[in-house]
Amino acid sequence: MSQDQAASVVRITDVAALAGVSIGTASKALNDTGQLRDETRARVREAAQKLGFVMDARGRALSSGRSYTVGMITTDSFGRFTIPVMLGAEDVLSAGQLAVLMCDTRDDSVREQHYIRSLTSRRVDGIIVTGRSSDPRPPIDVAIPVVYAFTPSTDPSDVSISLDDARGAEILADHLLSLGRSKVAYVSGPRRHAAASSRASAAAAHLGAALEGDPLYGDWSEQWGRQSVDLLLRRSPDLDAIACGSDQIARGVCDRLRELGKSVPGDIAVTGFDDWNVMALASRPPLTTVNLRLEELGRLAGQALLELIASGRPASLAIEPTLVIRASTIGS
Amino acid sequence: MSQDQAASVVRITDVAALAGVSIGTASKALNDTGQLRDETRARVREAAQKLGFVMDARGRALSSGRSYTVGMITTDSFGRFTIPVMLGAEDVLSAGQLAVLMCDTRDDSVREQHYIRSLTSRRVDGIIVTGRSSDPRPPIDVAIPVVYAFTPSTDPSDVSISLDDARGAEILADHLLSLGRSKVAYVSGPRRHAAASSRASAAAAHLGAALEGDPLYGDWSEQWGRQSVDLLLRRSPDLDAIACGSDQIARGVCDRLRELGKSVPGDIAVTGFDDWNVMALASRPPLTTVNLRLEELGRLAGQALLELIASGRPASLAIEPTLVIRASTIGS
To answer: What angle, 0 to 180 degrees and rounded to 10, lies between the N-to-C axes of helices B82-95 and B294-309?
Structure first.
């Protein structure tokens, strides 16, 4: 780039001159508005293409009263859960010609307020709020359309596209039961996290008599997965399955079982949760788990926002994860 | 949000009326321009605050000829390498009141062209181009300031903020030599990747006589790390260190050595590359590695872009990774 190049930007007057029409006609032709003959419209477009003319989206924005821009606020520094949500949303919004402004609050309420002011002053058409946690959060206070993605709003009148955690746990419990496993332990993350407790409760309720002992709560870590195996086998030496609240925990469980000479899934079947490739595929054996469909969640959030912007009334949704079967439950 | 709320937006005329000044005076006070008495400026600001008035950034943008917006184009779907770069850049740009538009090309040149047109039509002040690979890429063709981050431009006259891969490999080689290791093998990713070959060559040159055999090339995976151990020990049973091109490879190396009854670092020291927490900390033992300082790289890219936008002439830079020592080289 150079200042010279920047100065040589093609203007609509250049296009009008080359096409031999007035500026008003050129503008109508390029904006696809007004009454024009097809051949005039075609001549203007050809001239625009020849000159490399680019429409100024800001002009369109001011004349339509819209900025064709939306904000995406995350508390997650665009981490593992937010990224796919963001990509899905961006895909839908960008196909609708809306650009997405990134706002990373780093879980800091002062930064969040800064971004909300900045987005408001830029007159964005709407905002998607997302985060690392599936625990509900208080809504943001703005007078424009807002959709909550992954992290739902505590206000039931808001539009939230969230994940049906409990259903994911049920799907995995069903899978273990269908394989004839009848002594299933459950190991999850911190009890204070909605994702840990809702998965554990749903699995426990679904497993019924096949549940061995109360679910164990710990960290979202491989280390906790390894430690939990020793606790579980002391409590119930004849376990035939361990369902885990995350792939990280499940990977630790598989590692520790192998070290103890237990075969997975021959002796004990293991399930994860998340379908995080780095864990689920690197695990030995690879993990049966549920895929959270976060990119689909992001797409639905983007669609809901487009609908809200168009004054529609989209409904809140909880997306069902899908079962992914690998060697940790069905050996080769 | 509702249409009613949107309609009740406070206008500068309301602020001027409350402060008892003309619209021109109110505008000067709020934009911090023109000659005004301090007390007038204060009165206008107080009125604006009382009414909850928000400046329209689009007005500022049109009057200044700038959009106060930059684009960030990535080929990486905002993956592991791009995210920290993006966060660092966003931090600097947002402190400078610039908003960042996300553009995820998914490594698709048609999508890239779409985004470049979209950013041009939005009259962004500049663009940061980044990606998953440290291999140089052809420059994008736009007449505005561009900075390349992590993935450098093939055009040496462009501003690229990249990573000094070779220096990272030298730092790790020095560390192993300083510990008295004298039979060091090198295991890296695919030879066609600049990151794999530049790290391997730099390590080999630096290790000199302490290098055991030629560097091995494979995948960026734990599985390749595990496989490589068998190859290396067959070739050189008395190895005392294995330096790896990534943390993933190094984690696999540690796992396989443990399975073979070799102590890390007692028998064999192991080093990674990347400081990717998910791998480096979960590895048993945790990995000595180099931290790529990607967030700092992003910040420097953001600063370089601000400088270019202000018509400065920032220089290209290659950032040096820093050594992170953990138990895989210095046992407890």
So the answer is: 40
Amino acid letter, residue A96: G
Q: Are A276 and A291 in contact (CB under 8 A)?
A: no
Nearest to A26 by CA among A46, A7, A6, A50: A46
Give yes or no for a contact between B264 and B328, defined as CB atoms under 8 angstroms apart: yes
Contacts of A94 in chain B (CB under 8 A): 103, 114-115, 118
Instruction: Record the tokens describing residue A38, joined without a space.
Output: 């097809």
Structural domains of chain A in order of their starting residue, each with its CATH number = 3-55 (1.10.260.40), 65-163+294-320 (3.40.50.2300), 165-291 (3.40.50.2300)
DSSP state of B154: S
On whether the CB atoms of residues B190 and B196 are closer than 8 A, the answer is yes
Answer whether B100's CB lies under 8 Å from A101's CB. yes
What's the farthest any 2 CA atoms get from each other in chain B? 88
How confident is the model over B248-285, as pLDDT tens digits?
A: 999 999 999 999 999 999 999 999 999 998 899 999 99
Report the chain B residue with the minimal C-alpha distance to residue A141. Answer: B1
ipTM over 0.90: no
Render pLDDT for A28-54 as a digit per residue (tens, 0 to 9): 787 776 778 888 888 988 888 888 776
* Number of residues that this document lists for chain A: 332
With CA atoms as reference, report the closest residue to A127 among A153, A166, A106: A153
Single out the residue of A99, A50, A70, A178 nearest to residue B116, CA to CA: A99
B79 at the A interface (CB within 8 A)? Answer: yes
Q: Looking at CA atoms only, how far is residue A301 from chain B in angstroms?
A: 17
